[in-house]
Amino acid sequence: MIDLNTKWKVYSPATGKEIGEMAETPLVQIGFIYDRSKQAFQLWSQLSISDRLVYLKKLRLLMVEKMDEIAEVISQDTGKVKTEAIVADIMPTIDGIRHIEKHARRSLSRRKVSTPLLFIGKKSYIDYMPRGTVLVISPWNYPLLLAMVPIFSAVAAGNTVIAKPSEITPLVGKCMEELFLEAGFPQGVIQFAHGGKEVGAALSEQNPDYLFFTGSVKTGKVIGEAAAKKLIPCTLELGGKDPMIVFKDANLERAVNAALWGGLTNSGQVCMSVERVYVERPIYAEFLTLLKEKASALKQGTTLSDDVGSMTFPAQVDIVREHLQDALAKGAVLESGMDPNGWNIGNKLFLPPTILSNVNHTMKVMSEETFGPVLPVMPFDNEEEAITLANDSEYGLNSSVWTSDAAKADRVSGRLVTGAVIINDVLVSVANHNMPFGGVKQSGIGRYHGVDGLRIFCHEKAIMKDAGKKKSEIQWYPYKGKYELFLALFKEYFSGKTNWAKFGRLYLKLLKISSKNENERL
Ligand code: NAD
Q1: What count of Cα atoms within 13 Å lies in the side-chain half-sphere of residue 177?
Q2: What global pTM score does this model have?
Q3: How far does the centroid of ligand 1 lie from the alpha carbon of residue 425, in Å?
Q4: What is the mean pLDDT of residues 318-336?
């Protein structure tokens, strides 16, 4: 049932052409969506992990078959070049499914853990129980990856999912919905709600059993507050202002190429973009010259031989403009690109790759998330200063350290307050599903990918088992005659030089007293 009044037209940000039409999910349907989800959970959560993985495998194979088609939709909807759609949106998504197919059984199966000697005769386990309905709200910059990974992780763990993709890239939302449908997931297991912040807010004000949000710090705080009011557990994957530290002993050409790609890929609209470049002073001038030279060779456009695509969202263009105007007004030097006052953008959102020097931390471009094709470069004089500058941020998502000295790399990375540190490379850690992903400080709360990727969507349930044959336990009532024995037993046990024969005698005495007390009571 679709309300015809809530359709909106979709335009490609790279060409300005109309590329489709979307219908917003009417708010009155949200209650039904939740009902269906809770109902579907009853059956889905009872399937074995292997049975659930059959559906994930179908989804993976379907995505492999339709890879080019999906890349086309992503490219049209976001303005990113198709090469970036396939390399950074599709590949890590499919690899994420494969990771789950490989690891879900081990990750979600009952885990035996040891039982302290004081609880002799018992066994201990941890069970992973699906939570229920998971609400996944996702952004527009990697509209496939950032929606799909939490969706299929939650589903593999036995939950049902309601997904609210970004309204800025709705055709990717529609494409994901069709993929799940075609892969044959049972009705109600994955449902999509389309629309903007009103739909997102209405969904998060219901009662999901878990909320997984990826987006801006501003919205993350609104969502976190809504979740906190109802004590709904959540993961918040938010923005970044990632530093890149280049020491004078780094492979200079590699570092320059990485800065260029790390700062400009996806037009800089990456939560882990290189947003601040700190270069050790002896190589600063050479680094800057090479960076400018290489930036000038980049091609912008929409074809397969182009490097940099368009921006995705007009409001983001305004933020980039504001950051550049602020920086230039405070004395930054435009090394490449164009003064934003001269931009003539219209409905094709291409921004010139921009390099800035003479920057400092009073500028927005060095302190707030720019999320555009902008590389501010700043010199530093020593290791301590580089660490201080890198950590001088409200954000803490990712960072990179560039040096040929392994000890220095470890020393510096150990002191960076970020969710990930990459040595002599950029961005790649997000595509390694064996590692946790997430931020510190304003960059978010929680981790996914890795072992946590599935387990966050489960209640971790502690199970302790006793054979149930004894009448009583030593610590149960009545306490008569036990205190002195417990005192001696615990002192022996925790002394660090336990006499196990003595420990055994004390334990047996406690057992005897327990059964004597028990008999006297009867
Ligand atoms: P956004 O916060 O504006 O929107 C994200 C999603 O939230 C969208 O689906 C939107 O419709 C929805 N939304 C907006 N207001 C809402 C509300 N009040 N209640 C419920 N839902 C609401 O973010 P964006 O502009 O789409 O994405 C860009 C931001 O996302 C950047 O800050 C970027 O750094 C961040 N991001 C973070 C990660 C990460 O993994 N840490 C990854 C990608 C992007």
Answers
A1: 16
A2: 0.96
A3: 26
A4: 98
